Every structure is written in structure tokens, then in C-alpha cells.
Amino acid sequence: MKNHFKCCIVGGGPAGIMLGYIMAKFGVEVVVLEKHNDFFRDFRGDTIHPSTMKILNQLGILDDFLKIPHDNTDKLTAVFGNKEITIADFSRLNILTPYIAFTPQWNFLNFLAEKGNELPNFHLMMDTEAVDLVKENGRITGVKARKPSGELTIYSDFVVGTDGRHSMTRDKAQFKVHDLGSPIDVLWFKIVKTKTNIKHPFINVNNGGLVILIDRNDYFQCGYLLLKGGYQQILEKGLSYFQQEVISIIPELKNEIMQITSMEDVKKLDIKVDRLEQWYTEGLICIGDAAHAMSPIGGVGVNLAIQDAVATANILVPVLRNGVPTLNDLRKIQKRRMYPTKFTQFLQVLIQNKSLQPFLSNKKKQGVPSLFRLFQWFPFLRVFPAKVIGVGIRSEKIELK
After folding, report:
1. Going by C-beta distance under 8 Å and a sequence separation of 6 or more, which residues neighbour residue 159?
2. Does residue 198 register a pLDDT over 80?
3. How far is the C-alpha of 393 from the C-alpha of 303, rounded, in Å?
4. Are 93 and 386 in contact (CB under 8 A)?
5. Which DSSP string corresponds to 189-208?
6. Which residue of 136, 173, 235, 302 pairs with 45 in a disulfide if CB–CB is 3.0 to 4.6 A?
């Protein structure tokens, strides 16, 4: 088995698979290591944003992607009690695909992997967990990995860490992490639809609580927001208490919610917002969640990861065709992507600390927050959250030939 590649990417999430595909398409031999044997995970974002679809179009694969089962959403709505308000209107954006495509992330990753496997320079190693970095003369030169069949070492001219917020690569490289903190967590669970034609808004706010509903055709993937420390209290009060809490927010789905049979079906996602002070060292850079863990607010984590991948490919592909990246090359990547990272995290921290935390702390507080009333009174304002969510602070494009 071949054990030397131009680039080794650790992690088969959106950033890793997209970066691997772009690199392979433009002439760089790359291997992507994914520790699981498939991409099926519930705790992943389902949103493919307009800026991502722009990239797919530039790569010539958008039409094929749109053949995957998905739902197009041109407006993001929230229900406050019995009042529904549009908070983001993507149809107002002057772009190729003025909507968000909802599809389970495993569909998107399988799609990119299939496209990558059509390229001779693309190699995907599933069920291969990277466990350490190889270092020679002060430079990262490869990755030690573990497969069910045994351990192996993969050498490469360059390594990219795209292995998420619990990144091995950033830990082994001893990168310093700036923790911005988060006062909230999310309880993640699914409720099976009693009727397949049931529809419901994405954001549901009622009786001092908030539930996100992701429609996956025959079931809803649900996110219940709570303050940190609240999960233990729910466990102590039991399943019935949790069911009634969710029912008080979305009473229309009572029958579905009562089908939850155990708290073991409810998983806590520990929300983190952080970023590396420096993303790179000799022979290695981290991008995506490995460089900056995002809050689920706005659902922009996938979008930022894809934009990171494009910016990284634009800078590294020409270099890797003929040599190895210098620290100056890596500095350019971080400099380009740090501004959108900081600004997005600033907005997320502002919302979670100034809006969500006070709201979840005051169960008696009802009604529509004043900020959201503005979207009701002045529809043109809906374009601003649509642009931040759908396009991002700095949208990238393919610059390679």
C-alpha cells in the first residue's frame, strides 16, 4: 500500500473532503483519513449554503448535487408562541442559488467522496484513525494512524488537520486555544413523524424554551437549547419531565414527542466556541472546526469550513505542485480566514450571551423579542441575516486552473 502522498488530510468532514476533492482535481495527490467506516452521524449540520453551492458550481458538480434528495428553503422562520416571523430571506440575495439546501450531511459527504473517487489523485481511507503526528527535524512529515488491521504510518509533504473541535492534530501540535466560552448546550434527539406530510418551522420559541427542528422527511432531528448544567437536572427529573418541557414549546407535536422512550435517546452536545491563536506550524495547518469551533447559532459551521477549504486550496495547490509550503504561505491562509472567523464568533457570542442566556434564564419572559419584531415590521432587514448565514462574512471562490 502506498504510504507517501503530497498532502495528508486528517478528518473526513466538510472541510477535509472538500479540500481533498479540490486538491485532487487540480493536480495534487492527496489522501484523506476518516476514522469512521461511514459518514453517518446525527450530530452534523444539514445545511448547504448558497456560498457552498457557488463553489460546487465552479467545480462543475452543482447540477449533480441538486439531484440528491433535499429541501430548498428560501426563508428562515421562527415561531414565537403562535406568531411566525421570517428572520432571514435568502430570496432577496442576488446570487445563483438564493436558498439553503437541507440534506443530511452524510449525503453531502458521500457525494463529494464519490466525485473524489473518480479522480486518480484522490485517496480516501475510511476506518483509519489518525493518532499522532510524525515529526522530523522540527517539521511535521506525516501521520501515525490505526486501522482495524493494525497501525500504519503515512508520510506526506504536508498535513492538514480538519479533524473537528476535538482535534488530534491541534493537540499533538500543541497549538494554543483561545476559549470564548458558551453558556448553552444542546440536547439532540429525533422524533418520528406520525404523518409524513407534517411540516413545522425551523426555530420554535415558546414558554421560555427553544427547539430547533430539522426536517428529515420521515422524522425531525431536534435540538433543545438549555443552559450549561441543565442536563443533569433534566436527568434527575426524568423522561416525563423532559417530554413535557418539549411539548410546552411545540405542543402540535405532542404525539411525536411522547414516542421518546428513554433519556438514552437524548444526547448532550457540549457547545464550544474557541479558536487557535496560530493555526499552523512547519508542515501542518488546521482549518475548519479544528482551527475554530463554532456555536450552532446560525448553522454556519459547515459554511465556514468549506470557505476555509477553498482558501487553503487556492494558496497551497500551486505550491504543492512544485514543492512544500512555507510558513509565509500558511500565514496567508490564517490571515485571510481569521477575519470572518472572528466576526462570526463575535456575533455568535453576542447572541448567546445577550439573547439566549437571559431568555433561557427567565422562564416567565414571553412574547417576541424586540430585535425580531424589526424583521416583522421592516421586511427589507431580513436580507442582512440572510447574507451572514447564506454567504458569510467573506465568500471564497475557486481561483485555480
Report:
1. 7, 8, 9, 10, 133, 140, 142, 143, 169, 283, 284
2. no
3. 10
4. yes
5. EEEE-SSTT----SEEEETT
6. 302
Q: Summarize pLDDT for 18-63 with one digit per residue, the tens.
A: 999 999 999 999 999 999 998 876 556 678 999 999 999 999 999 9
What is the side-by-side order of every strand in the sheet holding 292-293?
177-179, 274-276, 292-293
Rounded CA-CA distance 347/95 in Å is 23
Using DSSP, state whether 22 is helix, strand or coil. Answer: helix
> Which pLDDT tens digit goes with each residue over 335-352?
999 999 999 999 999 988
Q: Which residues make Cβ contacts (< 8 Å) with residue 327, sequence separation at least 6?
A: 280, 282
How many other CB atoms are found less than 10 A from the CB of residue 197? 5
Rounded CA-CA distance 211/91 in Å is: 25
Neighbours of 174 (CB within 10 A): 7
Report pTM: 0.92
Calpha distance 317→319 (Å, rounded): 5
The predicted pLDDT at position 364 comes to: 57
E-strand ranges in 162-291 read 177-179, 184-192, 203-206, 209-215, 219-227, 267-269, 274-276, 280-281, 284-286
pLDDT in tens, 280-293: 999 999 999 999 99
SS3 of residue 27 by DSSP? coil
Mean pLDDT of 71-75: 89
Write the CA distances from 281 to 138, 171, 176, 285, 292, integer angstroms: 9, 13, 12, 6, 16
Percent of the chain with pLDDT over 90: 66
Give the residue among 77, 82, 74, 28 at the shortest CA–CA distance from 49. 74
- The C-alpha atoms of residue 196 and residue 191 are separated, in whole angstroms, by 12
pLDDT given for residue 129 in this prediction: 96
pLDDT number for residue 367: 65
| Cα–Cα distance, 270 to 278 (Å, whole number) | 24
Measured CA angle at 270 (ends 266, 274), to 5 deg = 160
Phi, psi of 27 (to 5 degrees): 100, 10
**Complete edge-to-edge strand list for the sheet that includes strand 75-80:** 83-89, 75-80, 203-206, 209-215, 219-227, 184-192, 267-269
- Is the pLDDT at 371 greater than 90? The verdict is no
Following DSSP, what letter does each residue of 94-112 receive, concatenated?
Answer: -SSS-SEEE--HHHHHHHH
